[in-house]
Each structure stands twice: as C-alpha cells, then as structure tokens.
Write a structure and sequence with these properties.
It is a single chain. This protein is an alpha+beta fold. The protein has two domains: 1-36, no CATH class; 38-91, no CATH class. It contains three helices and four strands. It has helices at residues 44-56, 61-68, 72-79; strands spanning 11-16, 21-26, 40-42, 82-84. A two-stranded antiparallel sheet has the order 1-2. The protein has a two-stranded antiparallel ribbon with strand order 3-4. Strand 1 and strand 2 form a beta hairpin. The radius of gyration is 15 Å and the shape is globular. It starts with 10 loop residues before the first strand and ends in a 7-residue tail after the last strand. The relative contact order is 0.18.
Length: 91
C-alpha cells in the first residue's frame, strides 16, 4: 500500500538551517520507501477516535504520553492511524 503519510513519495519537504533552504526529509512512517511496511496497520478511523478521546479529556499529547507511558511520537503516529505491530516471538 502506498504510504498515506508521504503520499508515496518517501519524503516530506521542509526548510533547514542555515538559510532556511528547502530540503527533503525521509518519511518516518515508510522510512523513505514510499510503501507502508508490513509491520504497520493503517486505521485512520481508530486513530481519529483516539485523538477525540484525548481531546475530550483536554489532554495534550505530552500529558497523555506521561499518563500512558507511551512516547509522544508513537501516540502521534497512532492518532494519525499508523499502528506498528509488535513481534512477540521469542528466539
């Protein structure tokens, strides 16, 4: 599946220092591949519900992070619908 975060480009554009020159930044979801990795499930509706729940509780991402023990980046990804599967196989 094409990465919905970068729209299949594999990167985002932004401005970098010095001089605020345009630059490309690899997509943190697909890691520059343009396609969703197999370990990521995309469920934007579930993410929307999570975000609405947090906003109803009047919590910031940081506050929810401290409350749940899940880092802010992961919470943000989940609220945008990106859920990483965890491999629980023991070696």
């Amino acid at each position: 599946m094409k990465c919905p975060d970068c729209k299949g480009l594999g990167f985002h554009t932004g401005f970098g220092c010095p001089g605020f020159k345009p630059m490309k930044i690899n997509c943190g979801i697909c890691e520059g591949a343009g396609e969703l990795p197999e370990n990521i499930i995309y469920d934007p509706e579930k993410g929307k519900v999570m975000k609405e729940d947090r906003k109803t509780a009047r919590e910031t991402l940081k506050e929810r992070s401290l409350k749940t023990g899940i880092n802010v980046v992961t919470l943000s990804e989940r609220e945008r619908g990106f859920f990483r599967e965890v491999n629980n196989e023991q070696k």
